[in-house]
Amino acid sequence: MAGQFCTFGSFQCASWGTIGFKRRVAPIFGVKMELENQISEEKYAADISSIKEAETRIKPFIHKTPVLSSESLNTLSGKRLFFKSELFQKGGAFKIRGACNAVFSLDDAQAAKGVVTHSSGNHAAALALAANLRGIAAYIVIPKNAPKCKVENVMRYGGQVIWSEATMQSRESTAAKVLQETGAVLLHPYNDRRIISGQGTIALELLEQAPQVDTIIVPISGGGLISGMALAAKSINPAIRVIAAEPTGANDAAQSKAAGKRIILPHTNTIADGLRAFLGDLTWPIVRDLVDDVITVDDKEIIEATKLCYEILKVAVEPSGAIGLAAVLSDSFKNNLAWKDCNHIGIVLSGGNIDLGVLWDSFKK
Ligand SMILES: Cc1ncc(COP(=O)(O)O)c(C=O)c1O
């Protein structure tokens, strides 16, 4: 049955207290290697404690999003799929989790000066909303080519829009000027401990709602979402597979994993406008060590998966949010040896903010 809400048993957690463990990392598409991982703050920007703290901090301000299932999509994929539906989150994307965690971590003196970021997408709107909830100013530097609906969201939530050119250089220099003038706190969209910890709370919820999940597929861009989720999920269950889904036209994570070092691409080209950023120096070590593999899919596959979400799940997802389903249905996933071991798959439907005209045009192609 399409669009069914799942009700699952209570959270089964091995041990919240245990944060270090020895694990074997066996990348699905890459070279096998043994790694001794201590999932601790000393090694990574966040850990299970900071994620649990974030959970408590943001709980009053966010939705616990539902996990949807569809027998039709189970049949199509040959797996049992659990859609963690963050498109129903406040602001229409998971980003409010990190933004709220960061904004509500500030002391009163810091908060009084407001917050600033440069973003063309969901982080911008989420930060405006989080700042609004705390009653402080949000200065949002937005490039002129940002999607219309995402700019409207920023304005709807009371963010002060400052326009920049589309280049990263212009975004950064405009944000630096705002910082200097206001003394506000800069909150990066993903390369920040507070943001990573907030996004990690999705994994805590998902594993409570669907404890049978053995694999989690997460969209990747700057890597804040998957870093938080991998830290949380693997601290609870080291055997869980965490797989990134990335557009072929912005595949810096796949290239970085293959090269063993962070790669920045000269340009990107994908319909998934939320997935065009590059890994940061805080997210890369987590992706390098804890993400088991990266599946890349082209825009045609992403659009097809977006359509399936509308037609079968009945949810208004944006292409960046539908990429996890595209990955599950892709040939590269099906042809891989590890495929047979992935039976209960959690997929993060990460957001639902899209200009309908753009979506409609993509469906017609
Ligand atoms: C809808 C959506 N999904 C996924 C992502 C990727 O998140 P991250 O940059 O933390 O990897 C973004 C980032 O903007 C997004 O907007």
UniProtKB/TrEMBL annotation:
Keyword Zinc: no
Key words of the record: Magnesium, Pyridoxal phosphate
GO terms (BP aspect): D-serine biosynthetic process; L-serine metabolic process
SUPFAM superfamilies, alphabetized: Tryptophan synthase beta subunit-like PLP-dependent enzymes
Cofactor: Mn(2+); pyridoxal 5'-phosphate; Ca(2+); Mg(2+)
Residue span, Tryptophan synthase beta chain-like PALP domain: 59-332
Name of the protein this chain belongs to: Serine racemase
Pfam families: PALP
GO molecular function: ATP binding; D-serine ammonia-lyase activity; L-serine ammonia-lyase activity; magnesium ion binding; pyridoxal phosphate binding; serine racemase activity; threonine racemase activity
PROSITE patterns linked to this entry: DEHYDRATASE_SER_THR
Species this protein is from: Ziziphus jujuba
InterPro entries linked to this entry: Ser/Thr_deHydtase_PyrdxlP-BS, TrpB-like_PALP, TrpB-like_PALP_sf
Family assignment from sequence similarity: Belongs to the serine/threonine dehydratase family.
Originating gene: LOC107429891
Keyword Acyltransferase tagged: no
